[in-house]
Amino acid sequence: MAISFVIIPVYFLERGFSLPITTLVIGIISIPMTIKFVWGGIVDYFIRFGRKRFIILGGLLFAGGLSILTVIDPRTALIPFTFFLFISVCGVGFLDVSADAWAIEISREEERGKINGAMFAGQYAGLALGSSLLAIIAKIFGYNISFLVTGLIVFLIILFPFIVKEVKIIKKHQKVTKLLIGEFRKRTTQLIAIFMPIVDINKGMLIVLIPLYMKTVLQLDIAQIGLIVAIFPVTAAVGSLVGGAIADRWNKRRTLYVFIGASICLSASLIFANTWQILAIIYGIIGFLQGGYMTAKCAMCMDVTNPRTGATQFSILTSLGNAGMAGGETMSGTLIAMFGFSRTFLYSGWVFGPALLLLYFIKLKKQKLEVKNL
Predict the structure, then answer these.
(1) Which terminal residue of the chain has fewer beta carbons within 10 Å of its beta carbon, N or C?
(2) DSSP codes, 190-250
């Protein structure tokens, strides 16, 4: 996440690429996360091999792709650079869906809020560390070295699954398509599938808008941008833990209402961020709120997911969310060029409105009973 949404945008701007080209490349490399159902389908089809080996495979693809970027200059080879960056994100897709499926298999419904809170807290902590550390490395040693360091870190991390024992739940191939059709005939699952891309548009817009705003309007350098961006995942990690605990206590829908409702106001308030101090405060609060609603919505998706299709069904739902996020990322550069930062910040808050309306029609309690009877 630090590479895709912090390092790459600033790197491209410093290399002379326009905002639309920069956000277009970010949108392209987000595609693997919008088709996570492809990776999930492969993982579920080969369920007899378990989830662990696909986590390792994904990590190797990611580390390898980033390592190749160290010898490619996007100014002279933009397409090869984007291609290998794309391949590395495909590795993230395999790793992501496999880890989610493993979590669904071993978790209970009443603890999934806390589990997702811990998962997102770890993700945001990694983003905080990556944004600050990799930005400093890029400034001192160059962007190529920051890519190499990231690849090495991921390679070391994927050694961890080797020491974790996995119990395989099914010993043979299964007919994933038939199971999925039955799951997506359920009204609640269909409504959540529509809800997911809408609620993540704001996230995609802000991921791109904030670093670009700091670079072009506040005139900050890459190291300063990295440190300020690191505030967001720190507060998001706290929000993930708080949101997960509240989701298990209250229920997922009520938690989403509170965190998304507050996010509308805070996203719009970015129009007042005319100094880095004000931006840091607002951005930190947005991070807390985003951590809360991201945790609750993913816990909600786990609740309606059949463990037998854990990689595919859950990845379809999260892929839809990632599609919304990719749409927000891709359109942000064009919106800035057309309307400026202030109006685009207002639009980023407005997109939450349809998501809140749709959330009203999602009846989780009935769906929970259906899942228990599977």
Answers:
(1) C
(2) HHHHHHHHHHTHHHHHHHHHHHHHHHHTS---HHHHHHHHTHHHHHHHHHHHHHHHHHHHH
